[in-house]
């Protein structure tokens, strides 16, 4: 039996197969296979074949590792997402109020003038703030003034951008002020150009009282930290 395995090992080695692969193929230890094949002097072609086989084996091992790694990352991602969803639980009225305050703290007008102003490019966030204003301050959509800001590179897409924000907010275009086109020295064209819709600013007609109340609430939060 061992003589048969040795002959197979010698032939495989002459074909440029690595000691490690031979050991796996014939189920014999690497040390034994190495001892059997020690007198084989590989030709230049055999060495080249061995090198090629080793590269293929390394590539397969890397692909196998990457596949396993991606599977583990996906598994962890799904786990993290489920934990995040569970942590939210049921959102009550106070939760909504605090979310709106946090958003305004990050993206709202806090300096310069006394107007209520909120700017962002994220459509769900914009929709949330419009609902939030109505829920906690009784602000109707008819009391809102909207303005789009977008890079001048998108000037030819103005109608599409305008339609997008009007549809997202469900607010007629006559409540939008003139679009602000931002000048840029860059002429670079990005692959997602058609998916970019700039930012939308929300203002409330005579909404300075809302801003004062919001900033007062934020002041109370700051005192705790």
How would you spell out the order of helices and strands?
Answer: HHHHHEHEHEEH
Question: Which sequence of strands runs across the widest sheet?
Answer: 1-4-2-3
* Beta-strand content bin: 5-15%
Distance between the termini: 78 Å
Radius of gyration, CA atoms, in whole angstroms: 33 Å
- Overall number of domains: 2
Overall geometry comes to elongated
- Let me know the number of strands: 4
- Total number of helices: 8
Helical fraction equals: 55-70%
Strand pairing plus helix content: what structural class? alpha+beta
Largest sheet features: 4 strands, mixed
Low-confidence stretches: none
Mean pLDDT: 87
Description:
With 225 residues, the chain is of the alpha+beta class. The protein folds into two domains: 2-67, no CATH class; 93-184 and 194-223, no CATH class. 58% of the residues lie in helices and 9% in strands. The protein has helices at residues 2-14, 19-26, 30-36, 44-88, 93-107, 123-137, 158-169, 208-223, and strands spanning 117-120, 144-151, 180-182, 199-204. α7 (158-169) links the parallel β2 and β3. α2 crosses α3 and α5 crosses α6 (123-137).
């Amino acid at each position: 039996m061992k003589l048969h395995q040795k002959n197979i090992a010698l032939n495989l080695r002459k074909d440029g197969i690595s000691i490690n692969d031979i050991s796996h193929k014939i189920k014999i230890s690497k040390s034994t296979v190495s001892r059997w094949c020690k007198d084989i002097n590989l030709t230049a072609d055999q060495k080249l074949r061995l090198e090629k086989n080793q590269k293929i084996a390394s590539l397969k091992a890397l692909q196998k590792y990457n596949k396993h790694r991606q599977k583990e990352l996906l598994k962890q991602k799904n786990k993290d997402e489920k934990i995040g969803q569970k942590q939210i639980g049921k959102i009550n009225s106070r939760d909504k109020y605090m979310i709106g305050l946090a958003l305004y703290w990050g993206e709202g007008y806090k300096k310069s003038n006394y107007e209520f102003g909120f700017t962002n490019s994220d459509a769900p966030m914009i929709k949330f703030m419009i609902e939030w204003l109505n829920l906690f301050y009784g602000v109707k959509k008819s009391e809102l003034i909207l303005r789009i800001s977008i890079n001048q590179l998108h000037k030819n897409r103005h109608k599409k951008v305008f339609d997008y924000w009007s549809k997202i907010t469900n607010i007629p275009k006559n409540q939008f002020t003139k679009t602000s086109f931002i000048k840029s020295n860059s002429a670079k064209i990005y692959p997602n150009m058609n998916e970019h819709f700039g930012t939308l600013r929300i203002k409330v007609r005579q909404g300075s009282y809302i801003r004062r109340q919001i900033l007062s609430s934020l002041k109370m939060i700051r005192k705790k930290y």
